[in-house]
Every structure is written in structure tokens, then in C-alpha cells.
Amino acid sequence: NVGGASGPLYGFGFIKMASAVNDEIDHDNLKEVLKAFADGIQQRGKVELNEKTMYDVIERAREAVEKNETVDLDKLQSFANETKNMVATKGRASYFNEASKGYIDPGAQSSVYILNALIGADEA
């Protein structure tokens, strides 16, 4: 059970990822998988970058892999840390307006763990 919108968003993103691969996620299809995941989250959540959401981590990870950068736990965590200085405009955190600043977005933090399990330290 995942509270709020995270469950449906991750579920939709996972379905989109699954449709991007035939069998396994590997070095060759990782870019496609991450694009499908990011696009699914953006579509379902109606989000853009810098709105203090899980998409901030997922899209930045996708961009880094697209540029053939190494994406490890530290890099993923740096993406989540960037949400600390943002004001939430989506989800429950948006109820706090300016008071949401100074805290890492929970969806962004959970995305760190999911993406690290998926791609941690893999270079595209």
C-alpha cells in the first residue's frame, strides 16, 4: 500500500517501462526503458521539471543516461537533494506552499531507491 499518488504513478510508470522491453532490461535498452518511465510519470502526473516531484529525479536520471554518464547512488541522491530548495507545486507537499522548501520531496527520495535498484552504477 503506497499512500497518496505515488502508487498509481509508479504503477503507470512500471507498465510503460514493461512495454518498452521484450524480456530484460539491459545496457542496450536502458535508455528506452527510462524514457518510457519518465514519459509515463510525466503523462500520468501532469508534471514538469522543478515542481518538486519524483519526476525531478526520474527525468534527470534519464537525461544523464542519455548522455552516457555514470548514474550511481550518489548522482541519484544529488538529483533528489535538488528538490530541497524547491517549492512544491504538486501533490500533498504543495499544501505547504513555501513551507515545503527545505525538505527533500518524498517521491523524489523514493525514486532514488527505485532507480538505483534498476540502473545503479550502470553506464548507458
From TrEMBL:
Name recorded for this polypeptide: Dihydroxyacetone kinase subunit DhaL
Keywords from the UniProt entry: Kinase, Transferase
Family annotation (InterPro entries): DhaK_L_YcgS, DhaL_dom, DhaL_dom_sf, Dihydroxyacetone_Kinase
SUPFAM superfamilies associated with the record: DhaL-like
Superkingdom to which the source organism belongs: Bacteria
Protein's organism: Staphylococcus chromogenes (Staphylococcus hyicus subsp. chromogenes)
Alphabetical list of Pfam families matching this protein: Dak2 (PF02734)
Residues annotated as domain DhaL: 1-120
Taxonomic placement: Bacteria, Bacillati, Bacillota, Bacilli, Bacillales
Kinase keyword on record: yes
Recorded coiled-coil stretches: none
An example Gene Ontology molecular-function term: kinase activity
